[in-house]
Amino acid sequence: MAVYKTITVNEDTSLAIWKVDEAEDKLWKDVELTPHCQARFDGMKSELHRRAFLSIRHLLAEYGYTDSDLVYDLNGKPHLRDGKFISITHSHNFTGIIISKSEEVGIDIEMQRDKILRIAHKFTPFEEYRTLANTAAIIRKLTIVWGAKESLYKIYGHRGLSFLHHINVQDFMFDNKNTTAQIIFMGDLSNYDIRFLEFEEFTCVYATRDKS
Fold first, then answer.
1. Nearest-5° angle of CA 106, CA 107, CA 112?
2. Are 161 and 177 in contact, with CB atoms under 8 Å apart?
3. Residue ranges of the chain with pLDDT lower than 70?
């Protein structure tokens, strides 16, 4: 078992991605769940979800944490008991976490697929993407935008936040691997830095709050 990729975002923040290709019994090695998380695990009917759940515990171990160090608030947002910030994601056979000791963070992994074309109007003004060269490019860009908004939603942690109306992701070039975003919600404005990477037809997007 091994980490697929790690990225140092800055001196306080880093992320790790796991490619889940192990059998479930292998992923149990060195993992001990709290009663709460064991109950969640026992309720999972999908083997893929169970394997992803266990792989995230191995990612936590890469940073010196166990399952008991992870707690969730009433909105379902994860926190670490020592006060560091964390965000968690999983998509099919990839999982990821981002941890920071100084700033709010969010992460999202998504598979690049044409389904996103059918739901684009629900989270972004779709006409902005009609100038792209081909359908594949549109899918890539929409997946990045969706991932950015998912990451920001995880940071904000407030029910009622609308992807379409409250979160704005600035346009970007694929080669730059970054952009910025704003959340305007209930009279408050906050700014964020967005970075992304693509691998094996998946997209990982991660966000940090702009402290400037």
1. 145
2. no
3. 1, 126-133, 212
